[in-house]
Design a protein that fits this description.
The protein is an alpha/beta fold and 432 residues long. It folds into three domains: 5-219, Rossmann fold (3-Layer(aba) Sandwich), CATH 3.40.50.1000; 233-341, Rossmann fold (3-Layer(aba) Sandwich); 361-430, Alpha-Beta Plaits, CATH 3.30.70. It has helices at 11-15, 20-28, 35-50, 56-67, 71-81, 87-90, 93-98, 111-118, 155-163, 176-183, 200-203, 213-219, 243-251, 283-288, 307-312, 327-341, 374-384, 414-420; strands spanning 5-9, 103-110, 128-131, 133-135, 141-144, 168-173, 189-193, 208-210, 234-238, 255-259, 272-276, 294-298, 316-319, 361-369, 389-396, 400-408, 425-430. α3 (35-50) runs antiparallel to α4.
């Protein structure tokens, strides 16, 4: 009989993008004359503990003493933290609802701010394990409960030993206390979460590095909001491209490589290509780039790309023939809109289609040669698999048809194989 899976998730810099005590300090010490020095000391204490260079208990005690915080400050912090939930956790809220009995938040942080932040994600209060503050009658935070094992060095290990959970346990976190669970043998695998911060001392010891929660769900074959983790999508940038272009694509979560030339080792794995003005892609490389989905050209692509071949291969091209300075961001944004929503608006070789995001659905992209009867075949496949179509869009030009279908969340996985087998199919992709 298969063991039940239990997911043990850290809070600071994992479920949220920030370290909550650091943020609380910025609120509580806002008017303190030595605030910058104190902020730095608290941040240093946090990092020393996360890297395993200072005991967690000593780090926590020193940080709480430096805070000078109150319950009113906590209310401000909670409001702030709700806006700082890690993007990949936020978009996968449906996972937490479906697996509510399998998810534990285990943190060296404090329940007073963790519970109100994670509860909207259907995480049960009884599954939240964290420290608690000690306050005075007028609401000042003066200490914490030292009897809680999570306030001690190795606290997560001690807690999990006490809980003695049955099943396959998986840990997700960014710090040394998370790795200690793996070191102790209490969990099956430790996933170093690096969406917000990457600590080499932790990454080097992890069973798997997960740059997003999408990646964790993907490798464990669990339901997720997007079909393929963005960190696995290779975006190659060639030539003299403005830093803001790189940052825009990197911030969205794609795996970025910035090179002087289109090196052969990247040809078969590249999904996105952003080219500086004057850069060329040789026809033989283009033919081998079977995973390539979109090209952004920061100049006139006409004499530097085989546009006909791009169209035949289902590669969407965006260009900036007039060298508009604003297009350092405009062209990458068009690429992002295509990768995230399927939008081809202002493409130079594809039918122009603008698409709204539709909630609680999967978006399927089918690129095919523009011959009669393809849409009938696509919809016949949907009918055979009893698929409920939420929305459907089709645009064509002389060469190709570009069909987008939004379907409900339940589907037979053989559906995708059937759609790919339709004659004259060029490319098929599940967006989310």
């Amino acid at each position: 009989m298969k063991q039940k899976s239990i997911y043990i998730i850290d809070f600071d810099s994992t479920f949220t993008q920030v370290e909550a005590l650091d943020e609380l300090a910025r609120i509580s010490l806002k008017k303190h004359p030595d605030k910058e020095a104190i902020f730095q000391r608290i941040e240093d204490l946090t990092n020393l503990a996360m890297e395993g260079k200072l005991s967690f208990g000593e780090s926590l005690a020193q940080r709480v003493r430096l805070l000078e915080a109150s319950e009113d400050h906590l209310k401000q912090l909670i409001k702030h933290l709700k806006k700082k939930v890690s993007k990949s956790f936020s978009r996968n809220a449906a996972f937490f609802k479906k697996h509510a009995d399998q998810v534990l938040i285990v943190s060296g942080g404090f329940k007073e701010f963790i519970t109100p932040v994670v509860s909207p994600y259907h995480i049960r209060k009884e599954n939240i394990y964290a420290n608690t503050f000690v306050t005075t009658g007028d609401g000042k935070i003066i200490d914490y409960d030292h009897a809680n094992p999570l306030s001690e060095e190795g606290g997560k290990v001690k807690l999990m030993q006490q809980l003695n959970l049955e099943g396959d346990l998986y840990g997700i976190g960014d710090g040394y206390s998370d790795f200690q669970l793996r070191e102790s043998g209490l969990i099956k695998k430790f996933y170093a979460f690096t969406e917000n911060i990457s600590r080499e001392s932790i990454v080097s010891r992890a069973d798997h590095v997960t740059p997003s929660f999408d990646e964790f769900l993907y490798v464990n074959n669990l339901p997720r909001a997007i079909s393929y983790p963005k960190n696995r999508i290779l975006c190659l940038i060639i030539g003299d491209v403005a830093p803001e272009s790189l940052q825009l694509l990197k911030t969205d979560g794609f795996s970025i490589r910035h090179k002087k030339t289109f090196e052969p080792k990247y040809v078969k794995d590249v999904h996105m290509l952003l080219l500086a003005d004057g850069e060329k892609v040789e026809p033989e490389k283009l033919k081998e780039a079977l995973k390539l989905k979109t090209i952004g050209y920061l100049g006139n692509a006409k004499d530097n790309l085989d546009l006909k071949k791009c169209t035949e291969m289902g590669i969407v091209v965006f260009e900036d023939p007039k060298h508009n300075p604003r297009n350092a961001n405009f062209i990458p944004k068009r690429m992002l809109d295509f990768m995230n929503k399927g939008t081809t608006y202002l493409s130079i070789n594809f039918p122009n289609l603008q698409l709204p995001l539709i909630a609680k659905s999967h978006r399927l992209i089918h690129v095919h040669r523009n011959v009669p009867g393809i849409m009938a075949q696509i919809n016949t496949v949907f009918a055979k698999h009893s698929i409920n179509i939420v929305g459907q869009f089709l645009m064509t030009n002389a060469a190709i048809g570009y069909a987008i279908t939004d379907i409900n969340a339940e589907y037979d996985k053989d559906l995708f194989k059937s759609l790919k087998k339709i004659e004259h199919t060029i490319k098929f992709r599940v967006l989310y």
